[in-house]
Specification:
Blueprint lengths: L1 E6 L28 E5 L7 H23 L4 H22 L1
Antiparallel strand pairs: 1-2
Length: about 100
């Protein structure tokens, strides 16, 4: 199974020479492109169940990651986030063999 990022936030475009740079304390906000992650079975032996399991693991990991980024990390949340990251890494490693 192969897990790859096929889309995401684009780098900011260069400002034209005629435009003034933003003043101090002023920030330019550009909407971020949605993150697109692709899960692909690399061989016929990898069934759809493995791909679905990896997708669910990644979704749980990303959900916990965004929740943790928005609030203070609690010890239980940190441990759960680390456990989900390890499971995702093991899923990727197991599917390559």
């Amino acid at each position: 199974m192969e897990i790859s990022v096929v889309g995401g936030a684009a780098p900011p475009a260069a400002a034209p020479a005629a435009e003034q740079p933003p003043a101090a304390g002023e920030q330019q906000s550009q909407p971020a492109a949605p993150l697109v992650v692709q899960f692909v079975a690399t061989d016929e032996a990898a069934d759809m169940q493995q791909v679905e399991q990896a997708a669910r693991l990644f979704e749980a990991y990303w959900s916990m990651h965004t929740k943790a980024a928005k609030s203070d990390l609690h010890c239980r949340m940190r441990r759960r986030l680390a456990a989900l990251g390890q499971q995702l890494a093991l899923q990727r490693f197991d599917s390559r063999t």
